[in-house]
Every structure is written in C-alpha cells, then in structure tokens.
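Researcher: Re-running this chain for the archive, since the previous output was lost when a drive failed. Same request as before.
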Amino acid sequence: MGLEEIISKTSVYILIAATLLLIILTGISLKVKPLTAKMKKFLFSSIVIVILFPTLFMAVSTVYLNNVSASSGPVHWHADFEVWSCGKELNLKDPTGFSNKIGTATLHEHNDKRIHLEGVVVNPDDASLGKFFHVIGGEISDISFTLPTNTGSVSVNNTTLCPDGRTGTVQVFVYQTDKDNYYKQTKIHLPEHYTISPQSNVPAGDCIIVEFGPIKSRTDKLCRSYKVAQQIGKLKGEKPNGY
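Model: Regenerated structure tokens:
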C-alpha cells in the first residue's frame, strides 16, 4: 500500500471517528440537564477539537504529500493498453457493485482499456506498469503476466504453449508520440518498471501492447485511440525511418 493510500484511508477512519464522537457529544448535551458551566465548557472544547483535528490532519498530510512526492503534487495521467495472448485479446474484468473502477482511487481502469493515474505520485514506481497490474490483481514481468478477466484470471509464462503448439513469450511494446505528431513503437524489457508518460490525453499518452506469442521485434497491434487519432488527422502515422 502506497503512502497516499495510507493517508487517504487514515483520513477516512479519522472522519468516521470524529463523526461518532460528535454524535456522542451532541447526545450528552441534549440528555444531561441541567448542564453546569464546567460541563458546557468541556462539551464546547471537545466539539471544537473533534472538528478541528480531521481538518488539520488532512491539510497537513496534503501539504506533506505534495512536498515529498516525485510529481510535486497531484497529476492526471493516462495511457491506453491492450493485452493479447496467442492472437486473442484479453479484457480486464469489469467493475462490479457500486465501484466504477478496477484498482485503487489513484491508479485504476474504468472498463475503457485506459490506465488512469489520478493523484500524487509519491515514488516514480507508483506510475509503473508493474504497479498498475498489481493494483488490478495481476502481475507482469519479462517472463509472465496474470490478468483478471470476467471468466477468471489468465496467467501465462514463457513455458506456456499456445493452441498451435508453439511456446509463447511475454513481450511488451510501447507507442509514444513526438512533437511532430508522429508515433513510434519500442519493445521494452523489464515492463514492470516502465513508467507511463506524463500525459493527460491519449495520444499523446502511451499506447501499451502486452503480447504473449512468438518472439518478434515489432507488433502489428495498435490502440484504438491511436487509430482514431490517425484517421482524423491528429496523428500523421508511424515515424518514417530516417525522418
């Protein structure tokens, strides 16, 4: 659990405790009659303290988080992703109940194939692909990945066979854009440590393709957001060699 999540959960617990104390103090003030001057002073002081403490805690913790964070404050970054296994696309499980997301308040997905990073990046690793897979209940590395789906978790590793009998390999490709509105793809290693680009919109935010299958130097997969951006002229296409 990250520092921001710890502080966030602690704030909730403090607010709940403060609410209960206020109810108790209010009940005492209504039930105990007559109230002596000493009791009135005690109740008033207690109510003020109960109200001020959560406010001060949240204010101080917010300033502290902003000061110690790698991002120097809250961010709102996005990156799109697709996961493929033996030529078949896998979809992350859908949110259930009252939740509209899979993951945490800071790092999650909204059933839209998009990584949402909305909060304070305390450590650079908080914006990593490995952290995202962890908070959604999976894992990823150069040799394996696990993705929770609506029909159960799908796990593969570099000894798993595809239906055609060939051994697959976990590979991750990242598309990034440049200032000239071209994009390029890069095959990355140690994907669990890859940090998404600090972009609010996709594109220019990353398109990440996780693919299990025969070893290749490039992927032919491309996120829908990049395809649409290219169709409407927002992106020129893949950067030509030697450009």
